[in-house]
Amino acid sequence: MPPAEDLIFRVERLSLTYPGRRGQAPAQVLTEISVGVERGGALTLVGPSGSGKSSLLRCLNRLEEPTGGSVMFDGRAITEWDPRELRRRAALVLQTPVLFEGTVRDNLSLRAPEVPLDFSEPRLRETLSEVGLEASLLDREAATLSGGEKQRVTIARALLREPQALLLDEPTSALDPPNATLVIETVCRLRQTRGLTIVVVTHSPELVRQLGGALLYLVKGRVQSYERLDRDAGGAIVDQRLQAFLAGISP
Amino acid sequence: MTGAVDLSFWQVGLALLLVGAIIVISARQALGLERDLAVGAVRALVQLYLVGLILAAVFSAARWYWVLVILAVMAAIATHAAVSRLRKPIPGISWIAACALSVSTAVTLAYVIGVVVRPHPWWEPQYLIPITGMILGNSMTSAALAGERLQGDLAARRDEVEARLALGFSGREAVQPLVRASLRAAMIPTVNGMMTVGLVQLPGMMTGQILAGASPMVAIRYQIVVVCMQGVATALGSLMFVRLAVSRYLTPAHQLRRYLL
Does domain A4-98+163-246 have CATH number 2.60.120.260? Predict the structure, then answer.
């Protein structure tokens, strides 16, 4: 792991348990996860469904409360951040794009009262073009957009909060291949142009290959393997299931 | 002005005979309603007789503490009924319902009894018990409707709530649209009732007063008071219930407790 001060996320022995209800046993979702993400780096979370990938992602911006271990963000424990501030800095994009009633403009400029954010016309246009959308979409009803457009609007909405990290939960799983490719290109470009840290849960080998960074393979809530893709590009991956995954076969 | 015709046991028996006739028809036509009708009639008979006996005893004892005991029992039954229809248990929901129903009823009651009607003494059971029953019944129905809607919406719209949380909204801000929808759903029957009161059906209390020989002009004045207090009690009861219930789904760190959904 690189030196601590270079890490934007530092996860140590993180565990997550859901309380059992009415006589049921508590559900252990994540067990003793330790991983770091460098500033401007990328981490891809892969693994079979139910392996805890999304839960780990949601622990990073504290939508879930870890029951053990710690998460540091930008040098401070996430419990020391105001959760609202943390979530603006580590912006999460959900699997199914959630757009609210109203135009694209309304959706982009959504904000909690008394939060100073720049939603000026040039900023909105600029951010839309960053995710590969036309500025003419601003006054379209959000409900009339295609799936791929919706997902890119939610990414733009996250970017307008000036985040340091972008957390993406299966951003391409609800999209057809051409739209998925557009979203993948957008995400990879943002890592380069903005120096954004990207943490993504995905089943898409194409996204993993294009994004680079590191790969964390989870099985049943535990780390099965951790691989770096940047340095030893090609051939260095030891875990056979990961090789299979990257070759396009779901693990 | 004359009082109501005093019904004898035989006259009550004649009413039950009518239900018996329907049971026979149901059996002959294989409608399968016999059991429910019979149980319903017997329950109504037994429950109302018991209530009648208890009320008669409380009226003649004329002690404020007995009146309060009756009110407490009514509140407990209303609390149970308000939460019994929820599809999934919410931790502490019985206390929440008890709190919302008691406070909303107490506030409305204090105003109606202390400021509007002003009976002597203030705990006069003839006023306090039926008025509390009407207020509590409305609060109960609206809290049950609001709770059901809130729970359904939280499950169906959880992505929407979490999307708002992820954008930096507080927990309270994130659920506000759902709270509003639940309150509207809870208030609709009362508001509709206010719109058509007296046009379709004479309200129960007004009917009772007219049957008991009161002038319709006195009866409508009481009914106007009742309509107002029902509006207040449903709004207060469902508002408190929804605000408290929704807080069970949120944490101080602005998280949605998904495992409760």
Answer: no
Residues in chain B within 8 Å Cβ distance of A154: 163
* Over residues A162-173, mean pLDDT: 94
Per-residue model confidence as pLDDT tens digits over A42-89: 999 998 888 999 999 999 999 999 999 999 999 999 999 999 999 999
* Inter-chain CB proximity B159 and A98 less than 8 Å: yes
Counting one residue from chain A and one from chain B, the pairs whose CB atoms sit within 8 A come to: 62
CB A177 within 8 A of CB A169: no
Per-residue model confidence as pLDDT tens digits over A139-160: 999 999 998 899 999 999 999 9
Looking at the structure, do residues B102 and B152 belong to the same domain, yes or no? yes
Q: In angstroms, rounded to a whole number, what is the distance separating the alpha carbons of residues A190 and A128?
A: 12
* Cβ-contact A202, A170 below 8 angstroms: yes
What are the chain A neighbours of B173 within 8 Å (beta carbons)? 112-113
**Which structural domain range is residue B143 located in?**
64-260
DSSP-derived secondary structure letter, A94: -
Amino acid (one-letter) located at B99: C
When CB atoms are compared, the residue of B167, B168, B255 closest to A65 is B255
pTM flag (> 0.90): no
Q: At what angle do helices B216-248 and B125-156 cross, to 10 degrees?
A: 40
Six-digit token pair at B104? 């909303």
Which residue in the set B169, B256, B259 is minimally distant from A112, CB to CB?
Answer: B169
In the listed set B61, B77, B97, which residue is the last one of a domain according to the structure? Answer: B61
CB contact (8 A) between residue A157 and residue B167: yes
Please tell me the distance from the alpha carbon of residue B47 to that of residue B34, in angstroms, as a whole number: 20
Q: In what order do the strands lie in the sheet with A76-77?
A: A27-38, A7-18, A68-73, A76-77
Phi, psi of A46 (to 5 degrees): -125, 165
Distance, in Å, from the CA atom of A193 to the CA atom of A166, rounded to the nearest integer, reads 13
Residue extents of the structural domains in chain A: 4-98+163-246
Tokens of A174: 């609800």
Provide the b/e sequence for A148-180 (b: ≥16 CB within 10 Å): bbbbbbbbbbbbbbebbbbbbbbbbebbeeebb
